[in-house]
Design brief:
The chain is of the alpha+beta class and about 240 residues long. The chain is built from eight helices and 13 strands. Helices cover about 30% and strands about 25% of the residues. About 40% of the residues are buried.
């Protein structure tokens, strides 16, 4: 079913980049793929893209009642998840929706400022990362990402200026710049380095950008990332 799923999702590769990358990286289980849409399981999250509300509801009915994390790629799936699971537009405790994808579609690496050095963070930075990150308060998730070697820090000398990570499903995120170092190019250096790591691994770099986060949209534009036409929604039950 992977081929059917990829064929459907490539009709809008940027809007479906998370599902395509999950398949490419071998972390997705195809639950359904056909002319009506695609449904994947990626770790604990159900990702779904449907052509109609009827198709979205039909695919959603196949899921067990205990399912609790969802990504809807259009309003049909969002409505179906809300109806069957009473899911809310959120991620963890904090509002995080709707979003657009920002995707690096180029083949060449981005230049990284030499004003900062970027290094993989270890568990000794756990408290610092949890204290500084503003979007959600999930220490267990931060610890898992650190143990996976998926969070990197930018350093100015011996002082950490900010950090960025890769989420479990493959998206760039967890970006934070310390107030002292803002407007100095730290975010650009961190994201360019993250894009280059994805390219080196043979993957496509992408991230979820929450609508209304003007600073993040400006950062993506400055680096040359492309935005999805469609909005997508994170939901939890």
């Amino acid at each position: 079913m992977n081929e059917k799923a990829i064929e459907f999702l490539k009709q809008d590769s940027i809007s479906n980049i998370d599902m395509l990358e999950a398949l490419h990286r071998g972390i997705a289980k195809v639950l359904y793929a056909g002319e009506e849409g695609v449904q994947l399981q990626v770790h604990e999250t159900i990702m779904q893209c449907a052509v109609s509300l009827q198709a979205a509801e039909w695919m959603t009915e196949m899921l067990p009642r205990q399912t609790s994390m969802f990504t809807a790629h259009e309003p049909y799936s969002r409505e179906a998840f809300r109806k069957r699971f009473h899911a809310q537009d959120s991620f963890g405790k904090d509002y995080c929706c709707p979003c657009r994808f920002a995707v690096w579609t180029g083949k060449n690496p981005l230049p990284v400022s030499d004003k900062f050095s970027v290094h993989r963070l270890t568990m000794k930075y756990m408290d610092t990362v949890c204290r500084q990150y503003h979007l959600f308060d999930e220490p267990e998730y931060i610890a898992e990402r650190l143990k996976a070697g998926a969070i990197f820090g930018a350093f100015c000398g011996k002082e950490m200026a900010g950090f960025i990570g890769e989420h479990a499903e493959g998206a760039m995120g967890l970006l934070e710049v310390y107030p002292k170092f803002r407007r100095m190019g730290v975010a650009s250096a961190l994201e360019a380095d993250a894009v280059n790591r994805c390219l080196a691994a043979g993957n496509t770099a992408y991230g979820d950008i929450i609508l209304g986060n003007d600073a993040s949209f400006a950062l993506q534009r400055s680096l040359g990332l492309q935005f999805s036409k469609q909005k997508h929604y994170w939901l939890t039950a």
